[in-house]
Amino acid sequence: MQVTDFHDLKDTALRSFEERLQQAAPGRCSTAEIEVNRLESQLVQLYGIAALMARRETELGRIATIWSAMIPVCDDFARGVQEVCAEHPACLGSYDNILDIRNKCARLRDLHS
């Protein structure tokens, strides 16, 4: 896997997230919560892939690049979830978790820069 693949995986995940939300019955909080949790899980999986890639890398600059690539992924996931949270406040926990992952990625990027 290449660092550039994070962008493609992010786009696919967000597109699927938006499609499933559009197909859901209006006002169904449980559907929104399920979809937000699914998106959060996908981010956790991408974080795990990034961690595995970073562990296998020997050059600090490349490790920083891996974590740098994850930050916009987290930002875009957070934006998508934030819009849903405006109508479904029960999703705020997932939003906070996504921001926590983003902050971890930023700290790891800074650590290896």
Tell me what the structure shows:
There is one protein chain. With 113 residues, the chain is mostly helical. The protein has one domain. 85% of the residues lie in helices and 0% in strands. The protein contains 4 helices and no strands. α1 (5-23) runs antiparallel to α2 (29-56), α2 runs parallel beside α4 and α3 runs antiparallel to α4 (92-112).
Strand content: under 5%
Overall average residue pLDDT: 91
Summed up, the domain count is: 1
Helix content: over 70%
* Class inferred from helices and paired strands: mainly alpha
Task: Please report the distance between the alpha carbons of the first and last residues.
Answer: 21 Å
* Strands, total number: 0
H/E series: HHHH
Q: Based on CA inertia axes, which overall geometry fits?
A: elongated
Question: DSSP helix count?
Answer: 4
Low-pLDDT stretches are none
Radius of gyration: 15 Å
Largest sheet: none
